[in-house]
Structure formats: C-alpha cells, structure tokens
Amino acid sequence: MASALKDWIKPDETAKEMLTRVFTVRPFLPLPPPLHKLPLRAGNVVEIVGPSSSTKTHILMQAAISCILPKEWKGVRYGGMERLAAFVDLDCRFDILRFSQLLKHQIARANSNDKKPQAEYDQELFAACMRRFLYICCYDSFEFLATLKTMNYQLQKEKEIQGVSVHLLMLDSIGAFYWMDRALPALSLGGINRRSFSLQSVTENVVQEIQKLLLVHPMLVLASKRASLGEKHSKTEAMRSLDDRNPRRWPTAEASGLNNASRGIQALLYREYMPLVWQSFVTHRVHVRPSDENSKHQSQQIYLTEWLLPSIKSSDTFTVNDAGIFLIS
Amino acid sequence: MAPLKSLEVNYSLIDSDFQQFCASQGIFSVEDFLMHDLYVLVALAEQYPTSDRLKEGITQILSIIESQHQPWQNGLELLEDSQNCKQFLPVGCQRIDAFLHGGLQQGFLTELVGPSSSGKTQVCLLAASSIAKTNLGKVMFIDTGNSFSAKRIVEFFNQNADHAYSAVNDNKILQQVLDNIICRSVFDIFKLLDVLHELLNNLNYQTGHNLKMLVVDSISSLITPVLGGNGAHGHALMATAGFLLKKLAHDHNLAVLITNHMVAGEGGLTKPALGESWKSIPHVRLMVSREPASNISTMSVLMHPAMAVGSRVECGIL
Description:
The complex is a heterodimer. Helix content of chain A is 42%, strand content 20%. By secondary structure, chain A is an alpha/beta fold. In chain A, the strands form three sheets. Chain A has a nine-stranded mixed beta sheet, sandwiched between helices. Chain A has a two-stranded antiparallel ribbon with strand order 1-2. A two-stranded antiparallel ribbon of chain A has the order 4-5. Chain A is globular and about 65 Å long. The termini of chain A are far apart. By secondary structure, chain B is α/β, with parallel strands linked by helices. Chain B contains 13 helices and 13 strands. In chain B, strands 6-5-7-8-4-11-12-13 form an eight-stranded mixed beta sheet, with helices on both faces. Chain B has a two-stranded antiparallel ribbon with strand order 2-3. In chain B, helix 4 packs antiparallel against helix 5, helix 8 (120-134) packs across helix 9 and helix 11 (189-205) packs parallel to helix 13 (233-251). Chain B is elongated and about 80 Å long. Chain B starts with a helix and ends with a strand. At the A-B interface, helix 4, helix 5, strand 7, helix 6 and helix 7 of A face helix 3, helix 5, strand 1, helix 6 and helix 13 of B. Strand 7 (133-137) of chain A pairs antiparallel with strand 1 (73-74) of chain B, so a sheet runs across the interface.
C-alpha cells in the first residue's frame, strides 16, 4: 500500500527531463524568411493567408527546401534539416520545374559561400534532396480525405525506406474545394444515422485526421489559404462597406478596427470563410500581400508579411526573383 | 465512389454480415467511410462475435480507399514525369513562342484574357493549327460562340506552308491537319461538363491516344450565366469545371488553352469576366490586347509560375 502510494506520488520526470524530451520530440524548426520571426515547432499549424499571386506557394516551396536540404554535406554547410517534407497539392498547380530551380539555386549559393563549386556533388545531393520531397495532388475533398486517412501508412513506409522522419506537412491551399463542398447535396438518403456531407462535416473530418496524424508523426503544418477578396477591387469594396457600416456582410469581429480607417481596411481585406473548426485548429496565422509602393530595386514587386496570430506590430518586406525569396532590410 | 453492395462481387470480405454492421453505423458507401473515424469503427467491431472478420473487412475498405487517391510521388519522379511528358507545344508564332519559353506547356492550363477582338480566338486557332501540323497530334476545340473557323486554319496553314513541298503534298498535309482538329459546339456549362467527363473516360480507357491539346473558347461565356445569386451552385459548377480541366491536363498531358472575356468593372476600367474565385484555376494567365485600328497585338503576363508579372511581347500575326 505504502509503496503504491509512493509510486503514485513520485514525479514522472523533472522539468529538465521534460524539456529535453519535448525538444527532441517536437523540436523548433528554423524556417527561412518570411517565416523566420517566430519560433515554430512540430505540432504547430500555420496558416498563410493572402490574395491570389502573393507568393504563398513560393513560401511553402522555400520552407520545403530548407526541410529537405541537409545540415552539412561533404564539408559544405547547407543549413537544412535533412528531413522528409510532404506536400498535399489541393490547387493542383504545383510547378516542379520551378521547385527544382529554387533547390539548385539554394545548393549553388551554399557552394559558392564555401568556394567549392563542385558540380558532381550537386547532382547527388540534388537527387537525395528531391527524394525527400513527397508530393500528392487531390482533385476533390473525398480524394483529400482518402489521402489523409492513408497518409499514416505512406509516411511510415517512407520513414523506413529513407531513415528520416517527416517534419513538414504542407497544404496548398486549404480552401480550394470550398465552393464544391458548399454545394454538396444536403439531404442524406438511407437512414437517420447516416452522416451528411457538407463543408462543415468535411472540414471536421479533415481536422480530425490531421490531429490523429500529428500524434504519430510530429510535424509542422503549413497551410496556405487564399484571401476571399483580391487586393485591387477589394479595397474599394472594403471602403464602401466601411461607409455602409454593413454588419451583415462583414463579420463584426473584423470590422472592430473601424476606429482606425486604414487598419479597418487591412482587416477587411480578408474575410474568414473556413468553418470554425478549422479556424480554431490554426495556431499561427500570417498575412501576405503585394505592397503598393514601388520598389527602388529594379522595379520589382515588393511583398509584405504581417503576423496576425500572434499579432506582431512590425511587418517584413521581401521580393522574389529567380533564386528565391529575399528580405529587404 | 461505390456503394458497398456493388463491392461484394469483387471482395469476398464485404459480405452481407459486414454490410449489416456498416448499415448499423450509417455507412452505405465508401464515401461514408471517409466521414468516419476508422479507429472508432474497429473498436465497435470488437464488440461483435465476428470481430476478426469485420476488422479484416475494414482493412479491405482501407485498401480500397488507398486506391481512390492519386499516387504519391517524390520530387525526382515528379521531375522525370515533367521532363518526359510535359513538353512545350509551339503556338506557331516565333515571337510568342520565344516569349513563353517554347509555347504552351502540357499539363498546364493557360488562360487568355482580353477584350473582344483583341485576338484571343486567333491565338487559339493558330495554336490549334500549329500543334495539329508540327506534332501531328490531335486537338480538341470546344467552341462556345461559333467562333471556330476552318477557313482561318487553312489560312494559317498556308502562311506557314513549307514551299519546298509540291502542292499535292501540301494538300495531303492540310487534309491531315484538318482531320486532327476535332470541333465540338457547346452552349451551356452542363454540356461542357458532359463533354469533359466523356473525354476523361475515353482517355482513361485508351492508352495510345494522341490528343495533345484542348481549347475552350470561350469558357467565361459558359460560366458567367450561372454565377450570381445567393446559392453556391454557380460557383460549384465553375470550380468543378476548373478541376476537371486540371485533371485532364495533368493526367493525360494535355495543353489546355481557355479564353476569358472582359467586362466593365469599377471606375470604368475593364476586368476579366471570371475574376477572383476563378484565379486559382489556371496555371498561366496571359493578357491579350490590341490598340484600335492596329494589327499588332500585345501579350503580357498576369500570372505565371516562373515568369515575372508584367513582362510583355508584341506580335503582328493577326
């Protein structure tokens, strides 16, 4: 009795032990700009929201590259994680040629830093990195659910073959099937206990499956999401709705920035359309958009990122060229 | 996806006992399975006397589910597929082809946006005749506004004709080119979905098909009538058509070329008829425009995975 009680009182582990355990199971993942500001770790769900062609896919690609590159290879520092990265393409627009171009640039840059331009190594390294990148595309929500349900086996298999675990799960983009799901037949045939298909139930299942997946494979989830309104005419519409004070059209929580007009527009620029179950699943949210001001750097388009969750005041600016994403300081 | 009853024939594990167990959980089709937590189902099956057989049935269903999604590929396989099967097909105008790094890419959806009489249909016809001729592949032209002109194809053919051949030989090639272009008239979105589904089925069962390109001129005139109103159905039809086109392009290596007309927007500016929610569909979006009373068209990039927005080329083909 006394020994049982003693066992019960005995601490499972010290804080230090716990910290070391958590850091090994769910380590911090150093991601390239513009996601470098916050320490992100496996288990976090980051939503990258922005209008169409605001480099969301590029940001995902850059994160994938830093995940599949090794830390060091034949004496050259690449600063990667050397882990698997899984990319679920829901927009079905992934361009592998662009991805391989970015990877080659990244390898070449690391080589030139170390002044070791050895093309032979590159081929081998390039192939090894590309093998760590896992890709699938889905044409509707059912394919997406089928993918998630069987992903555990797939990731387990790849883990055994390649000997490294998955660190990154990317979804591009999460609202892709929004309209198709909203139009799913609402009434269900064949019994009261048959579950109906709807945007709500599909999203619930997606979130549930990802949660289960995260228990087995601790990964960082990066999901891109298209903002419901584009930059150009959204501004006028946002202005108009500010004038109208039309609370039905715009969620009140977002319109609360009304006291500051510009901030109000900023908030109105994106209207939440995913069900609450997805919104509460997201732990971090970052907003990307093309900036209005013209660049001094060869008239390139400048993009802005701003962390909305947790909210950070300062924003980052960057440009994109052939070699990837570059911060403007 | 299939109802469980129809699977009974091929899979002995999905017997009437298993179907009864599923029916008690409200599961009648493989899709219903996707909406359930399989671990919970396994736990429920434990309570039945025939639990082992039921669990085998669930595993069977899981393997069916696995065959329902696209295969996983790693980066190398993807790159190899892209290099072998996704080539650039020439449009037939040197300046445009040089500008687009070789033309229209197989597996990609390329969209031409522009006001009326800016040369969108001309680019479609030119590309169709060029691909039918040089690659000797078939082209499907879905015509929604009676804009297809066989006469124009012949003109393009004669413009680029190789004069080294004799007239007889030329005629033979022309015959072949015209044979290679299949034109379908489609006047509403439902017919379009029918035609695309039919095409997808045909391509799935034909291995040696030679279809290289699919043109829809113009897709916006089919979709804009169903948009608007409060319901989601118009947008759902639009998204369905878009994903079907992408599936055709990707799985069967077709270069898909679609056109989108312009409508009056805010402040007197014109904007594409299919706007924000369509933007996520095409891979490449090109703007075609022409000054009044000039025969030089300008093509500029609105969206491209590898090209900067705003780069442009002028071309006087039309």
